[in-house]
Amino acid sequence: MFGISFSELLLVGLVALLVLGPERLPGAARTAGLWIGRLKRSFNAIKQEVEREIGADEIRRQLHNEHILSLEQEARKILSPVQEPAKPAEPVAQNSIAPVAEAAPVAPIAPTEPAPTPTASPAPHDPTLPPRAP
């Protein structure tokens, strides 16, 4: 990540040996190691907590979506008896073409209700026209 090579670590160690001296260097290295270990553990704990929160948010989002879907399905069940959708026409298979002689005859569909008969409504009387006979 930082790109520190072995030669750079060796240089830092030599400078620390010169600055601290051979008596204090082992204690300073031990203290530095302890602090670095504590930092790593705290960063890992924070990272795990954030990942847990992100996972919890994702689970909450999925539960919310599932709840919405279940409500939508219930609404469809309630509305389906009230509004019966028109049945779609059966699709014609493109790969299977039957000869005309083998095809079953199709009966015309008779209307279930008679068509309304038009009734003549009286036209409004125009004063320019002669009066009509009853």
UniProtKB/TrEMBL annotation:
<keyword id="KW-1133">Transmembrane helix</keyword>
<dbReference type="InterPro" id="IPR018448">
    <property type="entry name" value="TatB"/>
</dbReference>
<keyword id="KW-1003">Cell membrane</keyword>
<comment type="function">
    <text>Part of the twin-arginine translocation (Tat) system that transports large folded proteins containing a characteristic twin-arginine motif in their signal peptide across membranes. Together with TatC, TatB is part of a receptor directly interacting with Tat signal peptides. TatB may form an oligomeric binding site that transiently accommodates folded Tat precursor proteins before their translocation.</text>
</comment>
<keyword id="KW-0812">Transmembrane</keyword>
<feature type="region of interest" description="Disordered">
    <location>
        <begin position="103"/>
        <end position="134"/>
    </location>
</feature>
<comment type="similarity">
    <text>Belongs to the TatB family.</text>
</comment>
<dbReference type="Pfam" id="PF02416">
    <property type="entry name" value="TatA_B_E"/>
</dbReference>
<feature type="compositionally biased region" description="Pro residues">
    <location>
        <begin position="111"/>
        <end position="134"/>
    </location>
</feature>
<dbReference type="InterPro" id="IPR003369">
    <property type="entry name" value="TatA/B/E"/>
</dbReference>
<dbReference type="GO" id="GO:0008320">
    <property type="term" value="F:protein transmembrane transporter activity"/>
</dbReference>
<protein>
    <recommendedName>
        <fullName>Sec-independent protein translocase protein TatB</fullName>
    </recommendedName>
</protein>
<keyword id="KW-0653">Protein transport</keyword>
<keyword id="KW-0811">Translocation</keyword>
<dbReference type="GO" id="GO:0043953">
    <property type="term" value="P:protein transport by the Tat complex"/>
</dbReference>
<comment type="subunit">
    <text>The Tat system comprises two distinct complexes: a TatABC complex, containing multiple copies of TatA, TatB and TatC subunits, and a separate TatA complex, containing only TatA subunits. Substrates initially bind to the TatABC complex, which probably triggers association of the separate TatA complex to form the active translocon.</text>
</comment>
<dbReference type="GO" id="GO:0033281">
    <property type="term" value="C:TAT protein transport complex"/>
</dbReference>
<keyword id="KW-0472">Membrane</keyword>
<keyword id="KW-0813">Transport</keyword>
